[in-house]
């Protein structure tokens, strides 16, 4: 019922649709500018023709219209500049938002990893690694010790 009275709520424009809209507007302004440039050139040509025909009043009217077209062209140029500024700002804001989102994701992942690992687990794991390393050293020393005739031979060679 409220949607009938108040209408549907407007959707928040996102960066992509806003950039598309700005691009469309920019293209439209560029087309208008080209048309106005052609009209201004046409007025200059008309003024030349009227001057040749000794119709000074009509030539002045053409030059006045040309001046009005030039003012509109300048205004369109200012609009285009503002749209370019807005596009740059939107692209910067989009990059900033994406960066912050990526940082949030990284922070959340790091937080989850830290919750999964606490210092007691790390200490216990390091103790187990040290114990296994010591056991491996003992095994390697036992395997490296000569036995039987080889052990006697080494001792005899050392004495000589």
Q: Quick recap of the structure?
A:
The longest helix has 61 residues, at 56-116. Helix content is 88%, strand content 0%. The protein has 160 residues and is mostly helical.
Could you characterize what this model shows?
- It is a single chain.
- The protein is mainly alpha-helical.
- The protein has a single domain, classed as Helix Hairpins (Orthogonal Bundle).
- It contains five helices and no strands.
- InterPro entries: Snf7_fam.
- This is Putative snf7 family.
- One of its GO terms (biological process) is vacuolar transport.
List the defining traits of the structure above.
160 residues; mainly alpha; Helix Hairpins; 88% helix
CATH topology group: Helix Hairpins
Helices, by number, come to 5
Order of helices and strands: HHHHH
Q: How many strand segments?
A: 0
Strand content: under 5%
Radius of gyration: 42 Å
What's the architecture in CATH terms?
Orthogonal Bundle
Given helix and strand content, the structural type is mainly alpha
- What's the CATH C level? Mainly Alpha
Tally of distinct domains: 1
- What is the makeup of the main sheet? none
**What number is the mean pLDDT?**
87
Q: Could you give me the name of the CATH homologous superfamily?
A: ESAT-6-like
What are the SSEs and their pairings?
Blueprint: H1 2-6, H2 15-52, H3 56-116, H4 119-144, H5 149-159
Helix pairs in contact: 2-3
């Amino acid at each position: 019922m409220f949607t009938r009275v108040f209408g549907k709520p407007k959707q928040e424009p996102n960066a992509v649709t806003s950039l598309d809209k700005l691009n469309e507007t920019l293209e439209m302004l560029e087309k208008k500018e080209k048309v106005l440039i052609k009209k201004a050139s046409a007025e200059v040509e008309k003024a030349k023709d009227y001057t040749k025909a000794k119709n000074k009043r009509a030539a002045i009217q053409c030059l006045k219209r040309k001046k009005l077209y030039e003012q509109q062209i300048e205004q369109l140029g200012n609009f285009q500049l503002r749209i370019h500024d807005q596009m740059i700002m939107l692209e910067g804001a989009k990059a900033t938002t994406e960066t912050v989102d990526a940082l949030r994701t990284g922070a959340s992942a790091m937080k989850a990893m830290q919750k999964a690992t606490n210092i007691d687990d790390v200490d216990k794991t390091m103790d187990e690694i040290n114990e296994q390393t010591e056991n491996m050293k003992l095994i390697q020393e036992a395997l490296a010790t000569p036995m039987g005739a080889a052990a006697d031979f080494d001792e005899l060679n050392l004495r000589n």
